[in-house]
Amino acid sequence: MATVPTTTKGRGLARLALVSLLAGAALAVPRGLAGSEAGLTAAGRDAAACAGGDCLDPLREGQVARLERHLFGRMNGLDPALHEDLARAILTEAAAARLDPLLVLAVIEVESGYDPSAESAVGARGLMQLLPDTLRRETAGSGEEAGAGEGPVANVRAGIRYLRRCLRSYPDLDVALMAYNAGPNRLHGWIQAGAVPLEVRGYARRVLAGQDRLRRLLPGVSAPVPADLLAFGG
Questions:
Q1: What per-residue confidence (pLDDT) applies to 171?
Q2: How far apart are CA 206 and CA 208, in angstroms?
Q3: Cβ atoms of 157 and 144 closer than 8 Å
Q4: CA 185/CA 155 separation, integer angstroms
Q5: Which of 119, 78, 86 lies closest to 104 in space, CA to CA?
Q6: pTM for the structure as a whole
Q7: Residues 6+ apart with CB under 8 A from 189
Q8: How far apart are CA 32 and CA 168, in angstroms?
Q9: By CB atoms within 10 Å of each CB, which of 16, 65, 72, 130 scores lowest?
Q10: pLDDT recorded at residue 213
C-alpha cells in the first residue's frame, strides 16, 4: 500500500499529481482546452448573464457601478466609458462561465496590475496577459468576427473563457490558476516530474488572497464558484 505523504510539501505534490492524472487527457495537445465551449457566442453569454430577466435591474446596475468605480480608481488614465464597458464585460462573461467576477478581477490585478498595455517577456498581452495564440483561439471559439480580439474588453472576455477551460480541465481552483499562469501543458509536465516551481504555486495564492480582499472591498459583487464547475468534465 502506498505511503501517505506526511509533510505539507508531500501532501501538496500528491494533490497536484492526482489532479494532473484527471486532467491529462484534456491536455494531451494545446487544442485540448478548446472544444465544447465553441458555441458560447456573445449573445449566449449575455443571455446566460441575464438569466431570462431584465439586465437593467437595480442589483446588476449596482454591481456595474461598484466595479466601474473600482476600475476608475485603478485605471484613471483611460476613457471613462471604458471602465463601464469593462465592468459589464467582467460581470457578463463571468456569469456565463459561472465564475466569481472578483476572481477575474484578482487575476487581472496579479497578471497586469490593471495595465491594458502590459506585455510580458514571452509576449503575453493585456489585462489578463494572454499569448496571441490563446487570444485568437478564445476569440474564434466564441464565434466573434476576425479582429474582434483587440482591446481591453476583448482581452478580458477571452481571458475569462480561457480561465473557465483551465477550471474544467483541472478540478482544483489552485491548480487551475497555476495552469492559467504557466500554461496547462507546461504545468502538467512539472506535476508529472514532481517539481512545480515555487513562483507558480505562489501565483495561485496571490490571486486567491486578492479575491478575498476584493470581497471585503466590493461587497455585493462576489459570487461563488459552483461545485459542478470544479468537477472534471462538468
A1: 83
A2: 6
A3: no
A4: 22
A5: 86
A6: 0.75
A7: none
A8: 11
A9: 65
A10: 97
